[in-house]
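User: structure tokens for this one?
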Amino acid sequence: MTVRSPTIRAFTRVQSAEAKSSLEAEVAAEKAAALGRAGRAIETALLRLEYPEDQTAREDLLLDAAEAVQAYFLQRELNGLRDQRDIIQAFAIPRAVLNRIGIVRRRPVSASAKKAENAE
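Assistant:
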């Protein structure tokens, strides 16, 4: 059985607290960085929507923007920020985008999936 002196126990508590605060700081920095990336994704998606390369892809651009907004909202909620009204105003998110949050797109069927479907 090993007996530790009070000094050693105190030192390990300090080390433990420093390690915990260091880890917490790193986690907080990553959360902030993720929120920043999600915000930039909204800005990019809204710019593409405002200045589309062609008008035929408008629905895809609306869904892209809705996915970016949803990701940002989720990231905020993970950080304990639940009210999205200020964000909607700050980014000037159009109602058409907000109405599409949560819509799941149908993915195009791949050639191999079509072959397997036809084989049955």
